[in-house]
Design goal:
Strand order of the largest sheet of chain A: 1-2
Largest sheet of chain B: 9 strands, mixed
Largest sheet of chain A: 2 strands, antiparallel
Helix content of chain B: 40-55%
Oligomer: heterodimer
Radius of gyration of chain B: 21 Å
Distance between the termini of chain A: 71 Å
Distance between the termini of chain B: 49 Å
Structural class of chain B: alpha/beta
Structural class of chain A: mainly alpha
Radius of gyration of chain A: 22 Å
Chain lengths: ~500, ~325
């Protein structure tokens, strides 16, 4: 009953006209910056921080949070329409979403993303309201060894990201891991593969890599076949989901929400895994995994739900412990501090109106987002009828502006060009960018946690097996490999028999 | 010869003074950008934004914050070193300005020569904390414990050259023992693992630790300033705890590029001093566990002195530890 009275307090706070207005402004801005490739929530929140000086703390935080989860909605739009993901989560959406768009099913893809996100956002917010403090405690049991085991598991199951040759997928993951090592080594501070560029000390910019490898490379490929290009995208058959579509997305949305909610709680980078993990799960559970990579609606529904659920539950470590899980959360910590509130374990008790107001605003914001986004689908799909010769320069310009705005660094814009060319070469070689991106995102985390676990254990590698959570995760990874390899071996035996006959 | 020299000098003076007069008299007639060489939302960014907001009102122009992170703050600082000295590109940097010349052996700028110091801003105290079930009960027993078991104790820090790394060097030097140092990418994940009990000890800015201390999520031993903190009055100083050499504050300064017009410096100095006297700024600083410096310290002379003495202080400590960032 305490929960109900708390929620009543929250909705009372969130339903004031001022807070409703700024919640709407936040989610609207979030959707817009999410749509523009590259300009992410980080840059937007940083730019808008000074404006929130004059707001009351709860209003400021409602708006800034709105920008963050609103961007998760918008981020899938360009990934689906023009194969241009602005962050790692939407890179997964791009795999099947863009293929759906090429088959004239951009509308259903966008609708699936919006509905899946709405469902996941609402459920994850409920989890946040009911169980935030105990969940945060559990998440703290995750040390370096556990994160390492989790990442290994993630990499093992994600090999299924590829829909072509497994060997090429492995090669792409390795290339991604290598690219991920560029930059200053966390443990010793030694710069690696920076080739004298100080700009590379912080590593290769993710957005440059994603925009180049996915978006710009795709533009090159399209231009190559400009005359014969199947303008499938402008041939839009329907905007809405069929009954069959609805039947197909229910399972992935539910599983994605569950996976995303769990991974989002881990402050050490769990949210990064959410959409990758959901995609792999759906592909492995699917009756016709061959469809994945060629426009399977499950490949949009699962990851989008997982991503949004993780975005919502990644507020848990921040609101209950004062620990930001990723850079956007760190910015929101900054917003708390500028408002004179240091986020920490005391916020729930000292500022109940603030804590519950933010949570209530998340439901309101998610509802606003789905109402805002569904009618927009028609508009977005129309965008695809713009002649390509007009569209592609616009894409490149927006992507460059977005990329520059992250660090105000021209170097990141040059990097887009380099990765665009590399991405094109890889497409021509029949290699896919998604596994590369996975390696790039997870590689540094994997290395950091491996080394940290080894430092803390004074060089004793058995730490990964003696810590229970870590051992269980590694065992699950091993099981995945065995399950994947066994049928292949059985098939081979059958083939041998056939030959004998 | 002499005549020609005087003539040339006069002409040069005339030209430059008229050029400067135009710049300095109307200064500022467009928004001023302060580069913060760290990511938005961090403690330095917070300090900068609070000061910038107040300075805007005095200067009558927007003072904008631009975050240029990377390479331990040297990327952003390097950008200001190369900027036009017209007063529209400034820098707010912390203690890292004084450690950079030793930590980075291939630094592209010289902190004492390539900047015009304007004034100090604040010095954020640091606190020594540990996971809450760590054995030692108070500062004295911590020292004794470290002397005994230091080699088996893990010390978390936020990366090479970070304030928590510097404080760790001082702590090891003061106790005379080498701990197992565990680097993190930033203060937040380091604090996460202290709260989660994965590592033992951390020394970090009050901005990051005060709330966790008050909530009892971590155990606090001492504050690294000569005086106790208002926000944590029960916490002894390191000197009281028997570690007089362990004194460190994360001091912040405002700089312009080399060759800034003295009239502009005076204007900025005045705006900075007014901002630091602003009760709202003082109030927010207090919530961060710090306070603005006095008007006498918010001057070019005081900042120059702090910078040179700090460079001299850190050089041997970093060299002895043998930990460089490039």
């Amino acid at each position: 009953m305490e929960l109900l009275s708390n929620l009543a307090l929250g909705f009372e706070t969130a339903f004031t006209p001022v807070n409703l207005l700024w919640c709407f402004v936040g989610v609207l801005l979030g959707t817009l910056v999410g749509v523009l490739p590259g300009i992410g929530p980080t840059a937007t929140i940083a730019m808008l921080l000074p404006i929130t000086f004059t707001f009351s703390p709860v209003t400021a935080l409602i708006m800034l949070s709105g920008i963050y989860y609103g961007a998760q909605y918008g981020g899938s739009t360009t990934a689906i329409l023009i194969n241009l993901p602005g962050e790692s989560s939407s890179a997964v959406t791009a795999i099947d979403g863009y293929q759906m768009a090429r088959k004239g099913r951009a509308g259903p893809a966008l609708a699936t993303a919006a509905l899946g996100s709405f469902f996941a956002g609402s459920v994850a917010t409920l989890i946040l309201a009911v169980a935030a403090p105990p969940l945060a405690r559990v998440a703290l049991n995750f040390g370096a060894a556990e994160y390492f085991a989790l990442l290994v598991l993630g990499l093992l199951v994600s090999i299924s990201l590829a829909h072509g040759s497994v060997l090429k997928a492995l090669a792409m993951i390795c290339l991604g891991l290598v690219l991920g090592t560029v930059g200053q080594d966390v443990t010793t501070g030694t710069p690696r593969f920076t080739m004298g560029f100080q700009e590379l000390y912080g590593g290769i910019n993710f957005v440059s890599l994603a925009v180049g490898m996915f978006g710009v490379a795709e533009i090159f490929r399209n231009l190559e076949t400009e005359r014969s290009r199947e303008i499938g995208v402008s041939r839009v058959t329907n905007l809405w989901l069929t009954k069959e579509d609805f039947r197909r997305i229910i399972g992935p949305v539910l599983r994605g929400t569950g996976l995303g909610s769990v991974l989002g709680i881990l402050p050490g980078g769990g949210h990064v895994l959410a959409s990758f993990a959901s995609y792999s799960a759906e592909k492995n559970l699917s009756k016709n995994p061959k469809e994945f990579g060629h426009g399977a609606i499950e490949g949009v529904a699962g990851p989008e739900s997982a991503n949004n659920a993780a975005a919502q539950t990644s507020f848990i470590p921040l609101l209950t412990l004062g620990i930001p899980a990723h850079p956007v959360m760190a910015l929101i910590v900054g917003a708390f501090i500028l408002q004179g509130i240091t986020p920490g374990p005391n916020v729930i008790n000292d500022q109940p109106a603030l804590f519950w107001g933010i949570i209530a605003s998340m439901w309101i914001g998610n509802a606003m987002l789905v109402i805002l986004n569904l009618p927009l689908i028609g508009l977005w799909v129309k965008m695809l009828t713009i002649p390509y010769r007009v569209l592609f320069p616009a894409i490149v310009i927006f992507a460059s502006i977005g990329c520059y705005s992250i660090n105000n660094n021209p170097f990141d814009v040059y990097a887009i060009a380099v990765f665009g060319v590399l991405g094109y070469v890889l497409i021509r070689l029949g290699c896919e960018p998604a596994p590369l991106l996975l390696g790039f995102v997870l590689g540094p985390l994997l290395e950091e946690n491996l080394r940290r676990a080894m430092i803390i254990s004074r060089g004793d590698p058995t730490v990964f097996l003696t810590r229970p959570i870590s051992a269980v995760l590694l065992a699950m990874g091993l099981a995945c490999v065995i399950v994947a390899v066994l049928p292949a071996m059985r098939n081979k035996r059958k083939e041998v028999f056939v030959e004998d006959d | 010869m002499m005549k020609r020299f005087v003539l040339a000098a006069a002409a040069a003076a005339l030209m430059s003074s008229s050029a400067f007069a135009q710049g300095a008299a109307n200064y500022p007639n467009q928004p001023v950008t302060i580069i913060v060489p760290f990511s938005a939302g961090g403690p330095t960014d917070t300090v900068a934004r609070l000061v910038a907001e107040s300075m805007s009102r005095d200067l009558g122009q927007q003072v904008l914050i631009q975050n240029v992170g990377g390479a331990g703050g040297t990327l952003g600082a390097g950008q200001v070193a190369k900027a036009e000295p017209n007063g529209y590109t400034l820098l707010i940097h912390h203690i890292g300005m004084s450690t950079a010349p030793t930590l980075y052996r291939q630094l592209e700028f010289n902190p004492t020569e390539d900047f015009t110091p304007i004034g100090q801003i604040t010095s954020v105290p640091m606190t020594i904390v540990s996971r809450k079930d760590f054995e030692p009960a108070d500062a004295a027993s911590l020292v004794a414990y470290l002397k005994e078991n230091g080699a088996d104790t893990t010390y978390a820090h936020a990366g090479i050259g970070s304030a928590s790394h510097l404080c760790g060097m001082l702590l090891q030097e003061a106790v005379g023992v080498q701990m197992v140092t565990v680097p993190y990418q930033g203060a937040a994940p380091a604090m996460t693992d202290i709260v989660g009990g994965q590592v033992d000890v951390l020394c970090d800015q009050t901005t990051n630790t005060t709330n966790q201390i008050k909530a009892g999520e971590v155990k606090a031993y001492a504050v690294t300033t000569p005086e106790r903190l208002q926000s944590l009055p029960d916490l002894p100083t390191t000197a009281e705890a028997g570690l007089p050499t362990l004194e460190i504050g994360v001091w912040h300064g405002l700089y312009g590029p080399k060759g800034l017009d003295p009239a502009i410096v005076t204007k900025l100095e005045g705006a900075l001093q007014k901002a630091l006297a602003d009760p709202k700024v003082g109030e927010r600083f207090a919530e961060l566990g710090t306070k603005p410096v006095t008007a006498e310290e918010a001057t070019p002379a005081s900042l120059t002195e702090e910078l040179t003495s700090q460079i001299a202080l850190w050089k041997p400590i970093i060299e002895k530890a043998g930990q460089f960032a490039d």
